Amino acid sequence: MQTEVFSELFPLLSTANPQTLEWLFNVAIEHEYPVGRAVLMEDAWGNAVYFVVSGWVKVRRTSGDDSVAIAILGKGDFFGEMAILDESPRSTDVIALSPVKLLSISRERFIQILFKDPQLHHRMLQLMVRRLRQINQRLQIRSSPPAVKLAHTLVNLGESYGQESPQGKEIFNIPFKDLAEVTEIGVEEATKIMEKLHEKGWITIDRVNNIIYLVNFKQLMNLAGKV
Q1: I need a labelling partner for 212 at 20 to 30 A (CA). Which of 79, 119, 165, 219 fits?
Q2: Which of 110, 138, 166 is the last residue of a domain?
């Protein structure tokens, strides 16, 4: 991967100077994980920042033997940045939803480069603020009907990670259980809503290739209250 591709793939690095990109590229470590593998365990948070080169992961909140998906991340995103800054323990882990390729940069090296490149520092703060706004939006619609909340989740995934195709925006065919947990609705509710959206022609689910096509993105945005 060339440094130019490195910059284009990850929004976090879009404003980094060429020297920063070269340095990060040289110190990054590549990882590959199969479906279902734990990418990051709760006791490993704070050791590194991780960049998703390809594939999809879910962040789970864990409590004993119980776990709940709280976020879904795709290509171009990153995680682990908050833990390296506050150094507090985490009760979350990260699981591969699909085959995943990651790059990791150790805590020491990432903090070192933040001090050297203020543009990268500023860009990371911008993206962290954006995540906080997304959390606030989820809190604001917590009392909304389940269909509105699920449409909001699908639209966010489409806006953040969707790939354009003739059939509409492509996202990974995320298990309904994970979609339900992230949306904070029941699994049966999520299943019925997804089936209804499919009947309306707003989405198409390709189970062979593990793709959800967001066919009528405008209608999904209307349902989610985002336009």
Answers
A1: 79
A2: 138
Count each helix (H run) and each strand (E run) in the chain, helices first: 9, 11
Q: Which residue has better confidence, 118 or 158?
A: 158
Q: What are 114-123's contacts with CB under 8 Å, separation 24+?
A: 116/20, 117/16, 117/17, 117/19, 117/20, 119/15, 119/16, 119/17, 120/12, 120/13, 120/15, 120/16, 120/20, 122/15, 123/11, 123/12, 123/13, 123/14, 123/15, 123/16
Q: What is the pLDDT of residues 193-216, one digit of tens each?
A: 999 999 999 999 999 999 999 999
Based on the structure, what is the number of domains in the chain? Answer: 2
CATH value at residue 99: 2.60.120.10
160 and 94 together in one domain: no
Average pLDDT, the chain: 89
| pLDDT of the residue at 172 | 97
The boundaries of the domain holding residue 209 are 143-224
